[in-house]
Amino acid sequence: MEEMAVLDVAEERRRRRRAGDPRLSEAGREILARMTTGDLADEFQAALDADVEADPILGGHHDDAA
Amino acid sequence: MIVVDEYLAVRVVGGRWPEGLPDDEDLVLPASRHWRLLQRIHAPGDGQLSQLLATLSPPDRDTIRYPHPEVLQIADARPLLDEAARIAARYGGTGWLIAETLAAGLTYGRTLWFGTERNVGHVLAQAAGDLGITVHVIT
């Protein structure tokens, strides 16, 4: 019985993890999707690259875009 | 703990679970990578992405600023700093982003998960191989 309870808790945690943040609206979900896998992904990557180029503590001395 | 990059973190927060990403452990984003996401919120540029992010409601923005711990955790940088500094010195001036990510990889299962190859970078890839850290890329 205890083993089943542990399994239920683990499954519930997995379900919540996969569901995403419950505070996020549908419009917000759409923007985040465009940013990572949609039409805004190139702009997102360019912004991430710019951060390491602009900040030597973050980006170090390499010319790597990380 | 499963160490992820900005892409996978945002996808998970948005409820679009990446196929192939293990779901049986908590996800953790290095603090330096959370910093880069926060720049998108607090120091936006003038592109379309920035304009759209500016339209997010405060609760939506909070999902990036303060991720729900059941969905995504931010790594505490303090216990990783010494290892990160050692890595930075070993690989010649590697910045905090790469060094902390590698230190997190060493600490949490010698595995890193990225959402795109472009976000890995050749210095991180080479150092990860040298350190015995496996880098997975799932798109």
Integer tally of domains of chain B? 1
- How many structural domains in the coordinates of chain A? 1
Question: What order do the SSEs of chain B take from the amino end to the carboxyl end, as H and E?
Answer: EHEHHHEHHEHE
Q: Runs of chain A with pLDDT <50, length 5+?
A: none
* Strand composition percent of chain A: under 5%
What does this structure look like?
The complex is a heterodimer of chains A (66) and B (139). Chain A is mostly helical and 66 residues long. Chain A has one domain (2-59). Helix content of chain A is 73%, strand content 0%. In chain A, α2 (26-37) crosses α3. Chain A is elongated, with a radius of gyration of 19 Å. With 139 residues, chain B is of the alpha/beta class. Chain B contains seven helices and five strands. In chain B, strands 3-2-1-4-5 form a five-stranded parallel beta sheet. In chain B, α5 packs across α6 and α6 (96-107) packs parallel to α7 (122-131). At the A-B interface, α1, α2, α3 and α4 of A face α1, α2, α3, α4 and α6 of B.
Secondary structure elements and pairings:
The complex is a heterodimer of chains A (66) and B (139).
Chain A: H1 2-19, H2 26-37, H3 41-54, H4 56-59
Chain B: E1 2-4, H1 6-13, E2 27-29, H2 31-42, H3 48-54, H4 58-65, E3 73-74, H5 81-90, H6 96-107, E4 111-114, H7 122-131, E5 134-137
